[in-house]
Amino acid sequence: MNSFSKPSKDTKGTLYAFWLVLIIFFSSLAISSLTPSFQSPDEDAHVKRAYLLGHGQVWLSHPPGKSTGGLVDQGLITYMEKFSNLPFHGERKISANTLYEVKQIEWTGNKIHAPTDGISFYFPLIYAPQAIGIRVGEILNLSVHASYQIAKVAALIATCLLLYWALTLHAFSALVVGLFILPMSLFQMGSASLDGIAHACCLMVIALYLKINDVKAQSPRWVAFLICILIALLTTSRMHLLPLLLLPFLAHRITKQSIYLWGGIATSIFTLGWILASMLSVVDLRVVNSMSSTQLIVYYALHPIELLQVLFNTFTSIPTLKSYATAFIGVLGWLDASLPKMQYAILGALLGLLAISCFSWRPKTIEPKTQITFVVCALGSIAIIFLSLLVQWTPHPATIILGVQGRYFFVPVLLLAVAFSRPIASYFSPAPLSAYLAKYIPSYLLLIALGACSLAFTSNLLLQRYYLSPEQIESSTQTLGWSKPFSVTQSTPIIFSAYQTKTPAKLQGISLLIEAPSTGKAALQLQTAAGSMKTIAFTYPANKNSTYLSLAVPVDAYISGAIIGEKEDGARLKLINSNDGVQRACLIYELSDGSRRYTPGCP
Questions:
Q1: Nearest partner of 182 among 416, 463, 414, 420, judged by Cα
Q2: In the chain, how long is the greatest CA-to-CA distance?
Q3: Cα separation, 140 vs 546, whole angstroms
Q4: What are 250-281's pLDDT values in tens digits?
Q5: Cβ burial, residue 31 (10 Å; 0-12/13-18/19+)
Q6: Assign residue 383 a region: left if phi > 0, alpha if psi is -120 to 50, beta otherwise?
Q7: Going by DSSP bridges, is the β-strand pair 337-338/520-528 parallel, antiparallel, or unpaired?
Q8: How many whole angstroms from its chain centre is CA 211?
Q9: Residue 480, phi then psi, degrees to nearest 5
Q10: Please, where in the chain does CATH 2.60.120 lie?
Q11: CA 274 to CA 294: how far, in whole Å?
C-alpha cells in the first residue's frame, strides 16, 4: 500500500480539512442565497454551456450572422432575461414580485439558438456538476429556477469535495486557505460559473504534484491519470494556466515513470489542439477589431518596442494596479458592486498580515526545485493573462491592456502562496501543543478575522446592491374597503393580485379576510388558468374583527374567483383599492411549495 492510499494514524489533519471546508461551504452557500441569479460575470453564458453539455453538445455551432452557441430551452432564456436588467444598474433592485414571477417559469421544450459569448473557447467537461444539476431539474420536472439552484449547489459541492481532498493530501498554509475565503472567492464559488471549480482543481493539481514529490517512485498510476485530466480541464478552459502543462513532464523526471511522460504529451496535444480548433471556429460578434488575434501576435512580434511600451503603460498606471488589487479581493456582481474603501483596507491588511505570518523562504515541506517550478508557472500565467487580453480584447492600436480582472490572478497568487509559506497544519509533527500554538496562533487568529470580515462585508454589500433602495418609498395611496354582503342570487367577485393573474402560480390554499356577524356557509368558486372552474364549500365563523379564514383548495393555478352565500347574513370580504384603480380581494396565497404571498397593501 502506497502513501497516497495508506490511512494516516493521525486524523487531526482530516478533521481540520473537514471543518474548514464545511465552514467554506456554508459561508459560500449563504452568500449565494443573497445573490440574484446570473450576477457573476458571464454566468448566463456558463449556464448555457452547462445546459448544452447536459444535452450532449460538446462542439458548438454558429449560424450565419450569429455568435457561436447552441440550442437552449426557451424557458431558460426567459429566466435569464428576467435578471438581465440588473448588471451595471446599481439603482435597480430585486422585488418580491420579480422573485415570485421567475419561480413560475417552466421548461418549455422549445429550443432557440443562444450565443455563449466569452466562454465558447472552453472545453465543456469542467461544467459537469452544473450540467448534472440542470438535467436533474429537467428530469424531475422542476422549474427553471429550482434547476438553476440545484446546478449552483452541485458546483459548490464539487468545489468543496476537491478542496477537502487537496487539504488531506498536503498541509497547506493559512494564507492558501485565506485566498479561498476572500469575498471574490466565496462569491464565485456560490455561483454557477467556472471559477470555484477551476480554483479547486488548481489546488488539487498542486496537492497531487507535492505528493508526487514526497513519494516519488512509489506514486501510483492513477495519480498520473488524475493530474493529467485535471490539467487538461484547466488548460482548455483557462488559457493562462498553460504553464501547468509542465507538471506531468517534471513528474516524469521525479518518478521515472513513463506514464507521466506520455500523459504530459497527450495532455499537451489535446490542449493545444482544442485551443487551435476553437480559435479557428469560434465567432464572437462582440469583439470588433481591425486586426485578428493572429495578425496582432505577428504585429507585436515584429514591433517589440510597441509591446514594451504598452506593458510599461499598464504596469505603471496606479489606478489600473489599484483596480487589480480591489478586484482580487472582491468587486462583486458584474464588477458593479464595490466594497467601501475602508473595508478593502481592512481585508487587504488582514491578508497582508496573514502572508507575513506564514511567510517562509524555504518551507520544510516543499523542495527548492518545486518552489522554482511554482514560481515559473505563476509568472508564465501572469504573462499569458496580459498578452492574451492584448491580442484578443484590447482595441488596436493599444496604449494600455484592457479587460484584465483581478480574479484572473488567483491561481498565480495561489502558486506563490504555496511556494513561500509554511503549513498551518504542522500538528503532524511531534512538537508539543504549546509550542505549536505559540508559533501558529497569530495565523489562526488572522484567518478567523479574515473569514469573519469577508462574510460580513460581502453579505452587507449584496443586500445594499440588490435589495435595499437608497430612498424610502412614499406611502401608498391605497385604501381599504368592503365588498357587498354575500348573496344567494349574486356572486361576490374575487379579483386576484396582479402578479397571480399575470403569472399564475399553483396554489394549495387561499385565506380570505372575512367579517361576519354570525356563522354561515358559502361556496368559493375558483377559475383556473386553463379556464375550468372549481367549487369549494366552506363555513365561516362569526367574526367582527376581520381575521383571515384559511381554506385548502385543489392544487392548481388559479387566476380569479367568486363567493356565493347560502343566505344573506351580512358577511363580507375585505377589499383594497389598488394603485391601478382595481378593487382586489385581501387574500393570502399559499403556493404549492409551501411559501406564501400576500395582496399588497392589505393587513
A1: 414
A2: 95
A3: 41
A4: 999 999 999 999 999 999 999 999 999 998 88
A5: buried
A6: alpha
A7: unpaired
A8: 30
A9: -95, 155
A10: 479-598
A11: 16
| C-alpha cell of residue 25 | 461551504
For 329, phi then psi, to 5°, come to -70, -45
Distance CA 132, CA 145 (A): 15
**Which residues fall within 8 angstroms of residue 409, CB to CB, at 6 or more apart?**
324, 328, 382, 385
Measured at the CA of 444, the angle between CA 441 and CA 446, to 5 degrees, comes to: 110
Rounded distance, CA 292 to CA 299, Å? 10
Residues 6+ positions from 174 with CB-CB distance below 8 Å: 354, 357, 358, 421, 424, 440, 443, 444, 446, 447
- Give 49: exposed, middle or buried? Use CB within 10 Å, 0-12, 13-18, 19+: buried
Tens digits of residue pLDDT in 322-354: 999 999 999 999 988 999 999 999 999 999 999
Bridge-partner residues for 69, per DSSP?
61, 115
Phi, psi of 112 (to 5 degrees): -130, 160
Nine cell digits for residue 63:
449560424
Burial class of residue 377, CB neighbours in 10 A (0-12, 13-18, 19+): buried
Task: Quote the cell numbers at residue 513.
Answer: 379576510
Q: Confidence band (pLDDT; 50, 70, 90) for 43?
A: very high
Strand blocks (E) in 541-586: 543-565, 572-577, 583-585
- Exposed/middle/buried for residue 480 (C-beta within 10 Å: 0-12, 13-18, 19+): middle
Average pLDDT, the chain: 89
Report which of 98, 34, 37, 93 is spatially closest to residue 473, judged by C-alpha positions.
Answer: 93
Sequential DSSP letters for 477-527: --EEEEPPPP-SSS-EEEEPPHHHHHSPPEEEEEEEEEEESS-EEEEEEEE
Alpha carbon distances (Å) from 453 to 145, 447, 457: 30, 10, 6
Residues forming beta bridges with residue 560, ordered by sequence position: 495, 527
Q: Positive or negative CA dihedral for 262, 268, 271, 276?
A: negative
Determine the 3-state secondary structure of 78 from DSSP.
helix
Distance of CA 325 to the CA centre of its chain: 21
pLDDT of residue 404: 92
Distance, in Å, from the CA atom of 66 to the CA atom of 282, rounded to the nearest integer, reads 11
Q: What burial class does residue 471 get, using C-beta atoms within 10 Å of its C-beta: 0-12 exposed, 13-18 middle, 19+ buried? A: exposed
Confidence of residue 308 (pLDDT cuts 50, 70, 90): very high
**Class at the top of the CATH hierarchy for domain 479-598:** mainly beta
171: nearest Cα among 1, 38, 365: 365
Secondary structure of residue 364 in the 3-state scheme: coil
pTM of the model: 0.85
First and final CA of the chain: distance in angstroms?
69
485 within 8 A of 512, measured Cβ to Cβ: no
Tell me 568's DSSP state. Answer: -
**How do 69-73 and 331-332 pair as beta strands?**
unpaired
Q: What span, in angstroms and rounded, lies between the C-alpha atoms of 3 and 169?
A: 10
